[in-house]
Amino acid sequence: MNDFLKGALLILLTVLLQTSVLPQYLAVAYKPDLLLVLVVYLALRAPVGVSLPAAYGLGLLKDSLGGIYLGMNGFSFLVVYLVLKALSDRLYVQSAILFVLTVSVATVSVLVINLLLLVVFSQGGGLIASMLANLAPHLLMNAFVASLITALPFYSRPWNARC
């Protein structure tokens, strides 16, 4: 139960930071996606029983807090999670550079998946131009946040030694 409370507190702090604090100081294009960074961390470091429901739940949480369509980010987070989980056994997951690179690839992947879903299921024009205009700042901010996470002391510890 202690791990559950720590995880719930981490998610609550992440959501409060992303929805309340960061919008006050950063423009929309420069706001990092902290929930996606958390999903990448869980995919690389946590066991499947914990991280699979968390990945989908974090995507649904992002949709419910400010998404266009409910389930779009849930689906894209889940696809990115499943690909990363399949690759995590073959990667050296304690590498800081690899984590930053993985967050960058996941950011682009979520954008592409969301763009494909919007093109297929909506009729709005100019989607590609508007999403690509914000890609570079969003990608750089996510990579910066990922690099800050690798500097924290808990990053180098194994998952089972987190308590």
From TrEMBL:
Name of the protein described by the UniProt record: Rod shape-determining protein MreD
Protein family (similarity comment): Belongs to the MreD family.
The organism of origin for this protein: Trichlorobacter ammonificans
Major subcellular site: membrane
Compartments it resides in: Cell membrane
Domain of life, per lineage: Bacteria
Membrane protein topology class: Multi-pass membrane protein
Membrane-spanning parts: 65-84, 96-120, 132-155
InterPro entries listed in its UniProt record: Cell_shape_determining_MreD (IPR007227)
Annotated NCBIfam families: shape_MreD (TIGR03426)
Alphabetic keyword roster: Cell membrane, Cell shape, Membrane, Transmembrane, Transmembrane helix
